[in-house]
Amino acid sequence: MKKILLTLSALLAMASYSHAEETIRIAVDVPYEPFEYKAPDGSLTGFEIELGNAVCAEMKVKCEWVIQAWDGIIPGLLAYKYDAILSSMSITPERAQKVAFTNAYYNTPTGWFAKKGSHFDPNDKVAVKGKKIGAQRGTTQDEFATDNLKDADVVRYGTADELVIDLYNGRLDAVILDYPVGETTVLGGDKGSEYELIGKPFQLGEGVAVALRPSDKELVEKFNKALDVVKNNGVYDEIRKKYFSYDIKI
């Protein structure tokens, strides 16, 4: 009997979203300011948390946030630990082979950050040889640094906060981050006045979208319809202005 019950539980866990549509479990990797992080009282907040809650309200469903480290965030989706990922996941051809993306809902530039006076130049292939470059593991920034700075030592971290700690402590020569994240964590940190943006921010990829299981086509369309509504009725812009002084909507 126990074996039968376990099998039944497993089948229920594997059931598609349509069998439990009142609650949608959404994975998020924190901290990743200003997109998702914990407020002093421990509650989740940030641009994507507020946007996700607005989208869920539009879909008239209850959303439950699940904290998941970035490394395992797609495997967790495919293992039915949650139903969606709304955590600054950029659309890439490799990821699109594993998950179904909604339409993109924002795109922000990427930036290099280093200590003032370091004269770090990511475009100087000779000068960057052997330099320690920090990137968050599995991000488009990680892929870009790996592909374009083959003679550098790309050091990967689980979170942006860990990466900034090593930059501040001199264990990294430079970091590559989503620009708003670098603006908040590097330039806005307690040693931020000692650091600077290197060069101009630049775009990578097609933008950020919600990721879902390929079998959940109905849920993809529900997200797309709800995203369209909040992007056009003023709700998106109202939330965006709380976190960014510039437009990121696409």
From TrEMBL:
Annotated ranges, domain Solute-binding protein family 3/N-terminal: 23-247
Alphabetized InterPro entries for the sequence: SBP_3_CS (IPR018313), Solute-binding_3/MltF_N (IPR001638)
Keyword Signal on entry: yes
Pfam families: SBP_bac_3
Keywords: Signal
Subcellular localization, as worded in the UniProt entry: Cell envelope
TM spans (from-to): none
GO cellular component: cell envelope
Signal peptide: 1-20
Keyword Iron assigned: no
Protein family per UniProt: Belongs to the bacterial solute-binding protein 3 family.
Alphabetized PANTHER family for the sequence: ARGININE-BINDING EXTRACELLULAR PROTEIN ARTP, MEMBRANE-BOUND LYTIC MUREIN TRANSGLYCOSYLASE F
Name of this chain's protein: ABC-type amino acid transport/signal transduction system, periplasmic component/domain
Species this protein is from: Gynuella sunshinyii YC6258
Lineage: Bacteria, Pseudomonadati, Pseudomonadota, Gammaproteobacteria, Oceanospirillales
